[in-house]
Amino acid sequence: MQQRDRFLGGRPSRITGTPAMTAAFILSELQSVGTPEKAVHLSRFFKTGPGQYGEGDQFLGVVVPQTRSIAKANKATPFDELQLLLDSPWHEARLCALLILVYRFQDRKAMPEEREAIFRFYLKNMRRCNNWDLVDLTCRDIVGEYLVDKDRSLLYRLAESENLWEQRISIVSTWAFIRRNDFGDTLELSERLIGHKHDLMHKAVGWMLREVGKKERQTLTDFLERNATRLPRTALRYAIEHYPEPERQYFLKKK
């Protein structure tokens, strides 16, 4: 229990041995590199207007490479400080906290129990991953990687969630399996999500199917022969992006 507290509390990191940073420090670092002009652009890009999927989100105007740099420099930040960042109204603060979790999880010196603690902490905060970039830049490397050699029923429960971001996590996390030529869950989840109403899910399903095709074209072709007529057009277009034009037209005409 004492060892687990070391991962969850405010003590120095086992990995680096350096004092942990604070949410206030990280936020000040982000604010120092943000610009009002970029904040306006990002607010539009991530659809923060009334009724849009990112409604009400706020931006400091920090680009992703800068956020990554700050995250890498603060890998030792303990969970209680990361929680403050995840609860922040600032989009980049949440992204920075999530990227810190990714870098901690990926560290070769991280022990299995620390990776489990990171995974559990991520699951507790899934609904703070409330835009597509927050999901896409993190879930594969934490949720997907953690579940590679474990039971994956969690992903099917997330696919049935009423929360868009949890649903997107369910399919994008399978990218970790695709990398290992393991396609079964991607294909099964794609079929389950085939009738989803939101364009962001159509894109996510199509994207993961495209990744399957990059690894094994025939597996994707067989899936499309069975399902092309039911796939939303956006998902289909994403899935066949790397097909030769005659084959692309063949599947598009099935719609």
UniProtKB/TrEMBL annotation:
InterPro entries, sorted: ARM-type_fold, DNA_alkylation
Species assigned in the record: Parabacteroides distasonis (strain ATCC 8503 / DSM 20701 / CIP 104284 / JCM 5825 / NCTC 11152)
UniProt superkingdom: Bacteria
Protein's name according to its UniProt entry: DNA alkylation repair protein
CDD domains: AlkD_like (cd06561)
